[in-house]
Structures
1.
Amino acid sequence: MGLGFLVPAFFAGLAALLVPIVLHLRHRERNQPRRFPSLMFLRRIPIRTASRRRITDWLLLLLRAAAVAFLVAAFSRPFLGSTVAETRSTPARAVVLLLDRSLSMSHAAVWPVALDSARQIIAGLAPADRIAVVLFDDEAEVAQPLSSDHGAALAAINAARPSSRGTRYASALRAARQILGGARGLVGEALVVTDMQRSGLSGLAGLELPADLGVRAILVAPALRPNAAVVGADVQRVSDGDRSRLLVAARVLSRDLGGPRRVRLALAVNGREAASREVSLPADGATMVTFDGVPMAAGRARATIALPADPLAADDTLHLVIPAEDALQVLVVAAPGARLEETLFLERALAIGHEPRFVVQRRSGAPLTTAALRNIAVVFLADTPVPAGSGGAALLAWVEAGGGLIEAAGRRLSSRPPAAAFLPGTIRGAVERMDDRGGAFGEVSLDHAIFAPFRGGGAAALGASRFLSYPRIEPATGAEVLARFDDGAPALIEKAQGGGRVLLLAAPLDAVTGDFPLQPAYLPFLRRLAIYASGHEARPPWNTSGESGLVPGSVRDPVISTPSGALLRPGADSTGRALALGEAGFYDVYEGRAAGEPVESFAVNAPAAESDLTPADARELLLGVQRGDSAQAVASEPPAPREREGRQRLWRLLLAAALLVLLVESVIANRGWRGMAETGLAAPPERSLS
Amino acid sequence: MTAPATYLDPVLLARIGDLALLARMVVDGFMHGMHRSRRVGLSLDFAEHRAYQPGDDIRRVDWRLYGRTDRFYVKEYEADTNAAVTFALDASASMDFGSGPVTKFTYGRMLVAALAWLSQRQGDRVGLVTFAGDLLEIVPPSTRHLRLILHTLGRARPGGAGQLRPMLDRAASLTTRAGVTVVVSDCYEDPVAVQKGVGSLRGRGHDVILFHLLDPAERDLPGDGAATFEDAESGELLPLRPESLREKYRAQVAGHRAELTRLLAQNGTDYVGLTTDQPLDVALHAYLEQRLATSRVR
């Protein structure tokens, strides 16, 4: 039988032994002090003050010290038990080693330490312990299932490499829960080897873990990790006559640099350095760096914005794909005999802006033909009906093939309603609002893509427009009303037609029957209307690692080259065309074989949040985590609660002993058995009276 | 003949709340036991004639003598009827001590009241200064301020640490006219400092009488057994056994008083040591003796 302590840290409380000694030495009479006018004369009489520093009541002092010692020992929870027996009864453990391999772990000062920590954990396991290795970033990958093969776990650790992806501790803990759910009879423990990046804590709230699953974080990152990263960029292609120029502004994040740092930021286009800027980065903060315009060809380009390499090199380069210059062709069809001014606002508004750029053609009176509609993305019928005959048929075919038709109805159509079957509504005369100072937009579907610019308070700008007269339209079956006037009449309705979209707009686009063209909402409304009708989808200049890209269906027998140089051949089905973008860099899509110019490219970067290395407290790992019922039973029976309690009962005896000693001390102290501190005379320097 | 003990016993007097009544009783009782003072009417005693000088009050011209001699002479009298008597009462916390029913402060207050009453009866202008670490109350000397002095004494309360010397310095600077200053204090200060403080008053022409009040317990340090003594002013604690220190303490107190007597005598200051169990006539006698000694001033 050996004596052990459950909470030996309480032995630090033995320092409290000094308290009775100090109190004893500083003892003062407990009686009320005698007030005396002045101690002037008494102070002049030398008093042997040394006697006050002498311990005069050894018995009391020992009793008090013993009481403190007993209390400390009681709180340390002593227990009796056989060490051998305890060892035998200790059940085997099931350890899930969760190794963080997110981008932030690739820091030069972190990854080797993380591997060493993981190896030490494996080395510290008992032979009967089982271990699983899970590598996680924003997803968890079981590198080694739960087994007693510690060597395999070690091999899995040695093979681990940091990824380019973000951090999500929730996915790691879910994997641990799943693994340990199948390990019945073992004491489960999840050890998270991580840099405890704060951005990885999202998603933990609500996660449910078994109550007896121990989770411990092993921090492997230093408190301060200086880091600079290119976390974003605004890219704009500006047409300059026949040529175009690329304007790039990069956003650089710096953290814990310890002071301003001067760095060179380089912009490379298609592998060649095109521009560079010397910038001074603040110790903590974000910096926007604008490069000089770079001339470039009309085609697609790949670009990188790079900082000099620092200990976390993976976020020092931002990869971009600049799409080929794509201008959407818009055909504005005016009524025969219409004046140029009638479509002036419409044409000018569409000509402004980029991404995408609109190239506007105006047509009046000439019949629409299939040839005329080739390469056209959007057709605006400016207060003119859908042409009849072959023109109408060509237009319908074009719409069904994916074209976007917008019928902008006005005064002419109000008086002579068209009879096109594929329009989403029928025009029934006009609504005159001269008497009530004009109508305005009323109910608007702000969640629709057309009205996206007016979300979050922008609807007021839309409602500022006044319309004195507008066509009254009646939605057709299957048409969706996207906006209404304030009198409830539909203002914009939409209907899908084959692969294309047809929209009927009742809000006048001229400045004669309203002031819409003069209002700030006009320009964004028209652009979004045209973009939506065309079906154009702007691709982001880069994807975040972990997202997926879609290989265009037009690519036959696609071959994909990954940033690490591997070649992938996705399947022909739609699932196979979804490309998992896991690595930072460029994914190039080739047709047939990986040679020549890629038909498509994807730029992939790590999440910007991953560059913020701010650590969280390890306790936050379980913040918001719900503890469920015990998921497992322990195979080897531990001591029964009563037996375990019996072994730990010593603290009660010690507490009783402390109380007894304090009782004796009180009796002795109060009955005056204590010796009186003596004051005596010594020969210290005496002050003169004169 | 001595005064009846009834009128002068401090224990009995302390029961009288009205200081005016108390002072009157003390003075009347005291006077009852004395011969009539020859100082009464003294201020009207003729001294000599002097030749008139421009600026002299013409009412003082002796017209009879002018009639006889055809020259202007003015009469001069031996008089100090308007002497200013300022009572400086120590109101520090150490004065709030009494082993019996009368504290030093109560005794000092009765003493000042009685002396003020007595001075007023003699035609003096009376004033009051109470002090501890600072001057607490100041009543300028005036023939009409007796009631105010008694009222001020009645509401005075002892407290705070006392500083005798700087307070005497400041009291000396309160008036430019010479007069009599009566200091009532327990003199817990170095005798040399007390001498210098009194010297400030003397230097401005004041006659000074210092009543040094002590409680019998202060003088004798009674008590047996260990006890912790607490300084009434500083709050300092000192554990000791009085019986083992008594003799040395008494020697210290006696030495202190002797030193005060010696040093103040060098200054020409009257030092009167009193304990609070002594009748007030001791103080009154001493006061009148001093006034007699210094009265003949022109």
2.
Amino acid sequence: MAHRHRNFHRSLNRVAQLAAMLWVVMGMAMADDLHVPASVEAGQAFSIPTEGSGQATFYVIGPDHVIKRGVNLGSEIQIQAADVTAAGMYQVLVCSQACSSARFEVKAAQPAKLSFFLHPSRVPVSTPDSIDATTLVFDRYWNLVLAPAAVDFHITPATGAGTSRKLESHNGIAWMRMDSTAHEGPVQVTAALGSAQEPRVIQQVAAEACGLRMKAVPSGKSVVLETDPVRDCSGNPLPDGTVVSFTKVDEAGKSTVDTPIKKGVARTQFDLKGPAHISVACGVVLGNEVAVNGKL
Amino acid sequence: MKWGLVAAITALTAFLVGIAWVQSGGIAQHAMFSAGNPEEAVQALMSEIQARDYPRAYSALDPSSDIDLETFTQDVAGSDSSLRTYSSLQTADISPLHATADEAVVRVRMTWSSAVGSIDDVRDLHVRREGSVWRVVWPKPAVQNVPPQVVSVNYLRWEVIGRNRSQAWGSQDVDSPKVRITSMNAIARPDRVVIVGEVENEDTVPAYLNVNATLLKADGSPLEEEGSFDMISHVLLPKQVSPYRIDFPGIQIAAVKSVRMDARALLVPASADPVIAVSDQQIVKDGLNRNVLKGELVNQSGRPVNIAQVLAAYYDNSGKVIWVSDGYVDQALMPQVAVPFAVDIPDDIAAKLKNYRVIVNHYSRTSS
Amino acid sequence: MRTLLAIVAFTICWPWALTANAQELPQVHLNAEGLAPRPIEQLTGSSIVRYYALAWQAMGQALESNLSNGVGDAFTGFAKERLVRRVAEQAQAGLHVRIVDHGHQVKALFYSTDGTAMQLTDRAELEIQTFDGNKLISTDNSAHTYMILMTPGADRWYVRDLEEVPAARP
């Protein structure tokens, strides 16, 4: 039902448009042709010649700009650079007794600016295809440069040699993926095109804890538990503040403490009420287990 | 005529005085000071507590109660901006346990209403008869004496500097924390569907997160959407794991084809302090014969935690989360002082759980 | 004679038909086959269709009424600034533009892996009528091709860049 409704409206519109066109054409003087360039570069001034004589109204209708002024037919109409800064299709109209219309394209100027996205801002070490770099190429008027442009990516890790990659943009976009390195620390990636440079820094952080171990030291009626320096499988220390969970099970029940790593180790203390079994975990990674008041 | 007027004025005055006496709680006080049985004594006491007239309630206690007014008031009404201080006594269910001619034990289940729901406080009160009047012997609360000391706090704190709004699109910014739902289990209850599971902060920065779930019908269209509200620890430090529970009241599981989960995390300032230990956890039956997970919370920092919420996840023998329950502790956690807690477990869950894990949410009036 | 009567009748009914159409969202069909480097999720695809249609509706209303207060709900960044400027200048010149939207065939070209940007191309069947005051000075009923950049906001997708290109472009 809705489909028939829409078709009905489309038919109405088409016939009405035909009526309007007939109205414009019938009894009006023939309009002269307009000669405009097929395309110009953004920010480039140019002129449009006109034919005939007498006064007319000149219009330029662009994506972000509208000109309307009176002109003398037969003269050249100057289009200023500031009138054509936005890329896209523009319509030119000259109306005296009838209106002549033409369209021209404004293309983006030379690449001059970059928008650069580097994600994520924190990435675990040694993870393949974990870093994404996407660059959009713009001209100085912030028009997307749709023509291919060569973008350089310079990658400088915290340790080790830097690398470079050159990519060609397609429809204004250049993107790449890369692996994170094995060492934690900042990585700077700079996207460059001509004189435009956009540096970004991401942080490579330790991955999940690996080989988590704790030792238990009895101290009177309690036991002090301390982990070895908590590191990932590449040897990178987990950052301070990462939560480590200690769990003790004895005849009084279960006791747990979630304590953050401080200066690379996690530490806590439990009161002992007889033999106890103690375990440690960091996130979903389990460490070793110890039995106290029995064998260590 | 003259004597009639005098008599009328006298009667009217006596009537008005009587009304004033009743309105000032005279009947309740009379009952309290002339309670003829243990239940009446406890009921009268509860009425005064409900009216927040603690001096009057205290004055009606048995003289053998080894407690001063200030301690009694703190024990009943709370202190240190605890949850109890923001609560009011709604009901008190009284049931006698046993009695002799001169002494009795009465169980009272006080239900306190607070901004986070109702909290039960069950106490067994000793009641003693003196002459013809029964009075409540209020137990002296066990107060742990923590020696004065200086506690150094050098745990990590995170602050966030975000992108300036005036910076252009494409400028560098810090990403939201990466969190992962590590498990999800849809459970059918008699009057609802419940989604339980766990979520981990996989990142190296603290996260404020919410977990939402959308139940989908067989045709893929949404049936209902709900969030975890306070059945989750919203602030997770790096590598911290929190249980979550999302309730869908009135939904039958047969109508649900699938579930879409959504965990949204924000980067927030946070502190790694305080550390709260959860000790001596056990599953027992409480005085009302309910299955509860009880234990003690110990605030290992040097600053009070005003309101603490206990979240417990229960696992079956395959390690799957089969239930999540929570409970607020209506006492403040003073530094180094153990405070008991208990959270309910449904009977059918208690029968099949094999393990459990408790974490503690905390709210303090002043943050560092 | 019948044709003339039909023309008269349709001319009378034309404004009503346009008004009815103006309230409906434009038809948008999205083709996201082979989208890279990130495949599109079903919800995202539905959102893109909806908010792109809303953007065209907002733009049509703004260009016809010369009021740009609804533009910010659908456009952001460069696209918003340009459209607002365009509406202000055409109002100053006494022009307004009516767009009869016959639908959009949209193809998704690029979706960034972090989900922060999507590039699309649109072949739109539009009837664009330009008025100077009440005088119709131009009418154009043809296909128009656009390159679009959309970015996600808090609760919706916005058009960040909208550029008309010659029909030969992808």
3.
Amino acid sequence: MHQRIGLLSVAVSAALLSGCASTGVKNPSGVPVTEMKADERGFVAGTGVESQDLVAVTDKMARGILAVPQVANSTTEARVVLDPVVNETRFPINKDIFLTRIRTQLNSKSAGKVRFLARERMATLQNERELKRSGQVTSAADPNVVEFKGADYFLTGKLQGMSTRTTAGVSDYVLYSFQLIDARTSDIIWEDAAEIKKQGLEDAAYR
Amino acid sequence: MRVKRPDLNYLMRIIHSFIIALAVSLLVAGCATTERTPPQRLTGNPAVDTPTLLTNGPSRDKVLWQYRTAATAMQRGQFDEARQLLDDAILTISGIIGKDAEGRKARGYFSPEARKTFIGEPYERVMAYYYRGILYWMDGEPDNARACFRSALFEDSDTLDKKYAADYVLLDYLDGLASVKLSGDGSDALKRAQSAVRISMPGSYNRNANLLVFVDFGRGPTKHAAGRHGEHLMFQEHPCKIRGAQLQIAGKTYQVRAYDDLNYQATTRGGRVMDHILANKATFKDATGIAGDAAIVSGVVLAHNRDTQPIALGAIGLGIISKIASASTRADADTRSWDNLPLYLSFAHLDVPAGEQAVTIDFLDEGNHVITGLTKKMTINVPPNGADKVVYVSDKSTTPQNL
């Protein structure tokens, strides 16, 4: 009988002790810094606008612009001004990043067919020109001649979204559309769009 | 007939064995990996305590302290600080999708709901986006402000009863105003805002308005737990005698009425998925408690007969295990609250002359009388180029402020 009591006590203790095991703790020692490609979906992801979307969208747009006949077949450089992207989604984002990446892609791959005008620096440029005109600083050319170039095209875009939230989860669709507008005629000479839809569901503890 | 008396020494030995087993298990219960945070020495001054807790408090409460500190920073006119805190909090809110280890533990029988990373109930998440939207507009980014107002509405869009889904008047109204400011069409958003009205009807948009005044007042809801095991999440309403505000600028007086009430928003969501989990935990806690009592009583009765003593031993053992399981089950709801939220949200957009302007804001009671002691004074600089000047003021704002 004493043996039975002892065995039962051990069994009960073992059952109770089993709760002490540290189970379910993910990455208890943390996760080391992992370098990822910008177009790669990482292990930290939401349904919003992310780097892989930016890369995919801007790569597609840059390829599209380079294939536009007015740019591809032009014998002169096409001068482009960036007009800020309009964000109509539910995600607050740094909108300029889209145009910055398209600009860098085009500058590196267009072999000089496309030139961007630094209109966001106009205040600084005009100030420099005034300094040259007043003789306060040296000038390599006649500062009174207007050399600021006018735009042949405006590149702009719009981000629009549709979002749904139900007990089944969260769904976000974002339409990224970009246009190249002829500054002389207002013709939209090129337009392209990319669509990305993401869905997810929070842990029940947060619903 | 001679009745056989139970062997009391034998019964005592059984009970001793279980007490030893129980004591050992309790002693080693500390083996589980838990976050230990040293107790913080608090001063009682929220302005001092909240940053301390934000830095040194448990990581699961980080967003809670970010919310509270951001609200205090907004009231003090420290908008850069509020911006950083809200950005970080919103990153957590928007990144919670998918598997979450802390969420899984919070669902477990033996962990409280408050084990999970705090992101707040929908009305709290709405307010994080709302404040961030105000700050984006202050920075001259009405489209990102609109994105925040849309995200805020999105947080309120999965109510049980769809009648109460995304029914913040002000958020729709601001969505439309931002669209108008961006040369878009805000008429749909205005219609949605006007159809959701409960307190005050917002007027049509003034395209020439260059001063946007966000006003909030009162004390918003806080949470408490009810039910036998604290499994029901309830909201505590706090009485508020402020019903509106009046704003004096450039020799004119404007009335500012409340559009949204956070008590209403907190209490019209319907049930949460977590409420079902907590109800299951409470049922489990009750069932194991009752089963434990029954098993122990049965065991004691059976122990009176030497022939049934081995069965009695098992019954008492099971009873004790069941009682331990019952006592360890944590069915209590998470009552962590963003406790410095306002009760009413209000807004006005005005066309005022450019340049430096003195602004006086008084808070009004139900009879439209000025409540003494709450007057706020500000000196604002309205830009000359037609750009929006955005002002935030609360009944708890510091005064005077130069914006």
